[in-house]
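ok new one. same drill as before - structure tokens go in, u give me an amino acid for every spot. 72 of them this time. try not to just spam alanines like last time pls lmao
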């Protein structure tokens, strides 16, 4: 899965531990959950609440609603 920030910065696969695209008939028909294990300065800047992330192979754009930072 190729994830692209609104700035055009692409997530490299080695930066992601997990990325899940959920779809269904709920009020939120599609959601994206991603676990980033290593982040560059550009990645951190693009992962702010309200920013957008697109999934290249699906042609979908998602708005960042929640960002949690922690240690793994």
């Amino acid at each position: 899965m190729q994830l692209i920030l609104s700035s055009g910065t692409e997530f490299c696969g080695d930066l992601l531990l997990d990325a899940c695209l959920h779809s269904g008939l709920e009020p939120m028909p599609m959601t994206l959950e991603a676990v980033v294990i290593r982040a560059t300065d550009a990645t951190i800047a693009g992962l702010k609440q309200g920013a957008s992330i697109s999934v290249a192979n699906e042609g979908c754009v998602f708005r960042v609603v929640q960002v949690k930072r922690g240690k793994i």
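The first strand starts at residue 3 and ends at 5. and btw The radius of gyration is 12 Å.
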